[in-house]
Amino acid sequence: MTQSSPESPSPFKSNNARVEQLESEIAALRVLLSTEQRIGALLEGVGEYQFTDLSGERTTLAQLFGSHNDLFVVHNMGERCLYCALWADGLSALTPQMEQRAAFVLATPDSIHSAREQVAARGWRMRVVSDGGSPFANDMGFEGQVDARGVIRLPGVSAFHRNADGRIDRVSAATFGPGDTFCAAWPLLDLLKDGVRGFTPLSRDAMRQRASNAARLPSTNFM
Are strands 150-153 and 143-147 parallel, antiparallel or unpaired? Predict the structure, then answer.
């Protein structure tokens, strides 16, 4: 395969100079955003919060680090939010890669029983804990107003660092929302002729049904 000449641009490269300009501007803005997120989210000396893991055992924020000195905690809204599940579905696939660099944990306000059901149906690979009843999400800025169903959780992620003296700092954080770069579905859907066009993430039961249907399909092993 030979490299295309300037007179014959590659079909995989936009011929619209404005696209390249916008991509460059967005890349520069992301660097600025990352800096401001670190400044705005910094919390030094984070307290020792309690969580419950899927086995029903209690664990602490410090224990979530495991052998790492860095930790991501994904703030999930729980089963009530299909969009939070969509983000977690995508992030789950990255778990083995992320865990090379830092501990990677999802915190849900749901009961352990509900969390187990969600994990089983969706096949999430990251560690999942419940922070239900804990002030953790609120203290990290991921709780909103109260509605008829209770306190509204906000979706996002916090990054923590454990210092040599054991002190834990929250060093950055970001919120999740349609169109962000934390979920690959949105930029991909935007490429379609009609864009997102009413797309709604699959529920836990729908995911389980799709897995069941796939299991009944004939084998496609060509080896």
Answer: antiparallel
Find, among 162, 178, 151, 185, the residue nearest to 77 by Cα. 151
The Cα 82–Cα 19 span in angstroms is: 32
Looking at residue 18, its pLDDT comes to: 87
Banded model confidence at residue 77, pLDDT cuts 50, 70, 90: very high
Give the list of residues 6+ apart from residue 112 with CB closer than 8 angstroms, or none. Answer: 52, 54, 56, 130
Q: How confident is the model at residue 8 (pLDDT cuts 50, 70, 90)?
A: low
pTM: 0.81
Determine the Cα–Cα distance for residues 72 and 91; give it in Å rounded to an integer.
11
Domains of the chain with CATH codes: 40-175 (3.40.30.10)
